[in-house]
Amino acid sequence: MDPKEWQTRVDLAACYRLxxxxxxxxxxxxxxxxxxxxxxxxxNPYGLGFHEITASSLVKVAHDGxxxxxxNHALNRxxxxxxxxxxxxxxxxxxxxxxxTRDGCAVAAMACGLLPLSQxxxxxxxxxxxxxxxxxxTDEAERDRxxxxxxxxxxxxxxxxxGLITVGRTIAEAYVAMDQIEKACAVQVAAMASGTPLSxxxxxxxxxxxxxxxxxxxxxxxxxxxxxxxxLDREEPDYRT
Length: 241
Known about the structure:
With 241 residues, this protein is α+β, with helices and mostly antiparallel strands. Helix content is 41%, strand content 13%. The protein has helices at 3-21, 77-89, 102-108, 119-122, 142-150, 171-193, 203-213, 222-235; strands at residues 32-35, 41-43, 59-61, 67-68, 95-99, 128-131, 156-159, 163-168. β3 (59-61) and β4 form a beta hairpin.
């Protein structure tokens, strides 16, 4: 196997294990994908939990949905529609990470969307798209609408009544973005549940915080990712197999 593809497999398997540790799981549902240089992408086989994923267990998928090479593993249709569509629409994106967490789904159900109640949320101020719920994502026609709602520069897509998506130019960047957005959602749910008046930052503070995040600068997350991999290599080294 091409060494670069194998390294992508290792990094994506690590991302699945880390997502399992973060409790971003929904049994065998939701997905994380990573683009390969040949135009195909990697995704989890339908039926394995995030905690079971290894580099070799990931399936390679062509953009028409064909598993390469032919495999006994099934492919989740909704996963193909969402991930294949976004990767095809955004050449800058290497990784798409999708979750169904309680806090993420709660914010996705709020008409107000994600509010600037925390620094985590303000990092992505003006870079969050929203996609209205259309039912289970099994219709390929929805791919274009998902891509349009993500837009050409957004890093986060809130799927109304469904969950969250982050995209990154690296796997590390998509993971760190999801970590921050999940925290932003948790803060919002807790703050709103308190029943007390909420502090709203000024527009200038929001703009300053988003500028500090510098999402258009070099890919984010390399230092955080190195730390996370050190932990994973000590405690779950089999992800590399």
